[in-house]
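Figure 2 data, in text form.
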Amino acid sequence: MSRHVAIVTDSTAYLPQPAMARHGIISVPLTVVLGDEALEEGTEISARSLALALQKRRSVTTSRPSPEDFVQAYRSAVEAGATAIVSLHLSAEFSGTYDAAVLAAKTAPVPVRVVDTGMVAMALGFCALAAAEVSEAGGSLDEAVAAAEKRAAGMSAYFYVDTLDYLRRGGRIGAAQALLGSALAVKPLLTLDGGRIEMLEKVRTASKAIARLEELAVERAGSGPVDVAVHHLAAPERAEKLAQRLRERIPGLVELHVSEVGAVIGAHTGPGLLAAVVSPR
């Protein structure tokens, strides 16, 4: 089905495939470089393969899509009937993906609004869904962008990681913070703030940290209406347990998604990641 305003995002949104198909959302993949092999996220490398590589301490890096990748995505949207495009991407603090999309937008045959959401994972995915819903209701390009930006402004994302070492290696958090966390044997809770990953709290044990993660999500959700996502890497039991607790404790819950993060985010967080994304409607 053609749409007046098409929605393009990137593979770090980790949207469920049925949701992408239902809303006609186009995803441009980032790349994971495993040793000397470049692999597209979502099709050529799985989260499980990535977790195994990290556990073996293999060299893992990530790279942005090329501007040509976005040119092709925008062309596909136009061929499907779009007369305008909203291109929503992970924080420019994490990746050059936004810059690549901006370059491609200059040559697109229809207006393209590229948005640095400052988000990642389903915090980005919820922005894309909000824009898609406005588009499907006949909204304009400006209205779709405004819906995505409103969602981003109200979003909260909380992360538990077993160690800060992967974030330190990838340059996503300061070396001093990583050293402090290791020295005190604490379990860190992180949050997205201003498009960056920031330390939120340090908790003494994994069980206490995960319990605190639950409390933060419940407090932020309030009485709703609200959408929630639970992410993990190589920790499905932790994720399902947290999801069940949130279903029981959030009265205004509309949708709850549970998924394993892909290789790009997993490369920077490491196995054991548990995250809760809270998105008020």
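Caption note: The mean pLDDT is 88.
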